[in-house]
Design goal:
The complex is a heterodimer. By secondary structure, chain A is an alpha/beta fold. Chain A has 20 helices and 14 strands. In chain B, strands 1-2 form a two-stranded antiparallel sheet. By secondary structure, chain B is mostly helical. In chain B, helix 2 crosses helix 4. The radius of gyration of chain B is 21 Å and the shape is flat. The chains are: A alpha/beta, B mainly alpha. Chains A and B meet through helix 15, helix 16, helix 18 and helix 20 of A and helix 3, helix 5, helix 6 and helix 7 of B.
Chain lengths: ~525, ~210
């Protein structure tokens, strides 16, 4: 025991500044571990390759290797205890285990319950497994769809709420596989680390996981809440930093055939970055805390300091106010929304003039046919037309000819035709009326007065385009609704983003009404002054 | 279109038509409640109290200009699926949320129409009421088209059911045809409403001329 203790002291003085080493006795738990000669780590036993029973009945896995490393650093032997997602925190707080290394995600709730260790050692998220033939290209296409989920997964509730899913929750892998094969659901959303591993198995060759993971959550180690800032907590935290610096987890990913994850690669770079003086950019500060910029995004989100801004004073969590990435997403969404509106309004005017004059000029039987074709665009839901062109025609085009349809172009065409067909019908009516009352007018004069008469209706159709462009989010156009949903999916600020969306749309619709009305006045004035000149 | 797609579509037709019934139900619920509230707003705008008049005007402007699609998302996200009230769990099914979202533009529209109806009634304009009826029915067609967006908040109406059929069959060719088939039902319904309208307005013209 004495030998072990001195061993530990050497280790401690190696890893910590003298000040911390002097405070070694502040951890009752550490004293217990030392006197026991073993550290008890809670791991899972059903989560390959992280921690699972091998053929001989021993728990092995990547997390077991990490637990062994902690034991080595403490200079004690390792004792594993199997825990589950539902009992790991209570076991830790009751004292039956010393440390949790059990695929545990970092959440605000858990931070209140237990001693979450920073930095996080791994990160996982939700991804979707779909059939190879499925046309799914973005998360937005899942809105309102039936999706298979594995029961009791941490992100299920959030996923259902954020994507308004009709969930079918199954117990395990086999149930979900059967449900997928019988087409009971569009896909199976589950932990990306588990799904990427499944895809390597031969029986899953019919499936793919093409989307980027969402709802990323960092995984963390935990010690008892009261031990978080003690020597034990700091020692574990420093172990994690050391794993990132030395690339230990990258090596373990290779050993357990998981494939290098981007999160771990980024962490490896981050913790090895040095400033011009040659010291690490990311290292423990004098007060034992870690610089906020060195922690992963979600951890930063959970620590309130970086969120503090004018809005957060009132408890409003508006990610674009404090996060550059979501601000960029939002601005891009606004830009695409405005672009789509303006281009579609111009398109609807052009198509309206074309079809209006066509309907008016064509001989009776042809005009009748043209009018019915016009009706098709007017009397079918634009959402369905987006689906028909983008998924229906687009799917066949990519299958047979390898042509990919551009979603923004498809949306522009659909909105232009929808409102343009109404404009055409209005113009045609107005032309007939103008001809009736002024039969002697030239066709140019007829058109001008017809346009003037139909303007109110054309104006209303233009405003309707602005109201409808949000539909483009259903075919993965990155407009404002898409980008807001993406921000919601990452930060969970539902109420704030949705309210912003509603207010923004309200303002933008008013702005377009104002502009279009002024345009009418301006055009009207110009016309009058032109008439004065010619008369 | 080959025969397998034809048989698939005919086997799915009853399911799809039941879904279309939901579209019609949502549209009618939205039109009914929207019209009632719109009438109340119009009365307020026309009433003697200036304060009520201004607030009813503002409310009409608000309801007129909020896109129902965005509102549908808002309502779906903000109102929980179910909530407890005095030990009772009150369900809040998605189709009611969709009806609420679609009723909002109806309120704006009918508020304006009723106001117009009142002023023309004062001028003894006898065609005003039939004109109101025609405009109302045309708006019903617009709302029926918009009811397809309810699928994105999980309402199992016709488009939602078509999406289910597509998931089950996983045939890109079938996908195109079933969407076209669903579109045809919307077209048919809209045209039927228009034909009835034309007959009625023809009658009205005869009646008043």
């Amino acid at each position: 025991m004495i030998i072990r203790f001195s061993h530990l002291l050497i280790l401690l003085s190696y890893f910590f500044t003298n000040a911390i080493a002097l405070a070694a006795s502040d951890s009752a738990r550490l004293d217990l571990i030392k006197s026991r000669g073993a550290v008890i780590v809670g791991v899972k036993n059903d989560y390959p390759p992280w921690a699972y029973y091998d053929e001989s009945g021993n728990i092995v896995g990547l997390e077991v290797d990490l637990a062994q490393d902690i034991a080595d650093r403490l200079g004690v032997s390792l004792k594993l205890q199997a825990v589950t997602s539902s009992n790991r925190i209570s076991q830790l707080e009751q004292g039956s285990i010393d440390i949790i290394i059990a695929t545990m995600g970092d959440t605000i709730k858990r931070r209140q319950q237990t001693g979450i260790i920073e930095p996080s050692y791994y990160s996982s998220g939700a991804t979707i497994l779909i059939h190879k033939k499925s046309p799914l290209k973005s998360w937005a296409e899942l809105y309102g769809k039936s999706v298979c989920l594995t029961k009791n997964t941490y992100f299920n509730r959030d996923l259902i709420e954020r994507f308004l899913l009709k969930p079918q929750e199954y117990e395990g892998t086999l149930d979900n596989m059967a449900a997928l094969q019988f087409g009971k659901c569009s896909g199976w959303i589950y932990d990306d680390t588990a799904l990427t591993r499944l895809l390597q198995e031969p029986r899953w060759q019919e499936f793919k996981a093409p989307l980027d993971s969402i709802m990323l959550i960092p995984w963390t180690l935990a010690v008892k809440k009261s031990e978080k800032d003690s020597t034990l907590g700091l020692l574990v935290s420093d172990a994690v930093i050391d794993w990132h610096r030395t690339g230990k987890i990258l090596a373990l990913e290779e050993k357990w055939k998981i494939g290098e994850s981007k999160f771990i690669q980024d962490q490896n770079k981050k913790w090895n970055k040095k400033d011009e003086k040659g010291s690490f950019v990311c290292q423990r500060l004098a007060d034992n805390s870690l610089p906020a910029s060195c922690l992963s995004k979600k951890s930063v989100g959970a620590t309130a300091e970086i969120k503090s801004n004018i809005l957060s004073q009132w408890g409003i969590d508006f990610p674009p106010a404090y996060d550059n990435y979501s601000l960029h997403l939002l601005l891009n969404g606004i830009y695409i929304t405005l672009l789509l509106s303006v281009v579609s309004i111009i398109g609807s005017l052009l198509f309206g003039i074309f079809s209006g004059i066509g309907l008016y000029k064509l001989p009776a039987p042809l005009a009748w046919v043209a009018s019915r074709i016009n009706d098709i665009f007017r009397m079918t839901p634009p959402l369905l037309n987006l689906y028909i062109i983008f998924f229906g025609l687009g799917g066949l085009a990519s299958l047979h000819y390898g042509i990919q349809f551009n979603a923004i172009v498809v949306a522009t065409v659909v909105f232009s035709l929808y409102a343009g067909a109404s404009n055409g019908a209005l113009l045609c009516q107005a032309l007939h009326a103008a001809k009736k009352y002024h039969p002697e007018d030239s066709s140019r004069q007829l058109f001008a007065s017809a346009f003037q008469h139909a303007y109110e209706g054309i104006n209303a159709n233009a405003v309707n385009i602005v109201k409808a462009v949000g539909l483009a989010s259903m075919i993965a156009v990155p407009e404002l609704i898409s980008s807001s949903n993406q921000i919601i999916a990452e930060y969970g600020s539902k109420l704030e983003m949705m309210t912003f969306l509603l207010v923004f749309y309200f303002i933008i619709v008013y702005a377009f009404i104002f502009l279009l009305n002024n345009l009418q006045r301006w055009v009207g004035k110009n016309r009058e002054s032109n008439e004065e000149l010619t008369s | 279109m080959n025969t397998t797609i034809y048989t698939e579509i005919s086997t799915w037709t009853p399911t799809l038509l039941n879904g279309f019934g939901l579209n019609i139900a949502i549209s009618l619920v939205a039109m009914t409640f929207g019209t009632i509230i719109g009438w109340m707003l119009a009365s307020g705008r026309h009433g003697s109290s200036r304060c009520i008049g201004i607030s009813c005007n503002l409310a009409t402007g608000l309801f007129r200009n909020i896109p129902s699609f965005v509102l549908m998302f808002y309502i779906a996200f903000i109102i929980p699926i179910e909530f407890e009230w005095q030990d009772h769990v009150i369900q809040f099914p998605a189709w009611i949320k969709a009806s609420i979202a679609l009723a909002v533009p109806v309120i704006g529209f009918t508020s304006d129409q009723f106001l117009y109806l009142r002023s023309s009634h004062k001028q003894n304009n006898t065609v005003a009421l039939p004109m109101f009826f025609i405009a109302w029915t045309q708006y019903l067609v617009i709302i029926l088209m918009a009811s397809s967006t309810a699928s994105v908040i999980g309402v199992h109406e016709i488009v939602g059911r078509a999406n289910t059929a597509i998931e089950v069959l996983r045939d890109p060719e079938f996908m195109l045809w079933i969407y076209l088939y669903v579109a045809a039902w919307f077209l048919l319904a809209a045209m039927a409403i228009n034909v009835i309208l034309k007959l009625i307005s023809h009658r009205i013209h005869q009646h008043y001329s």
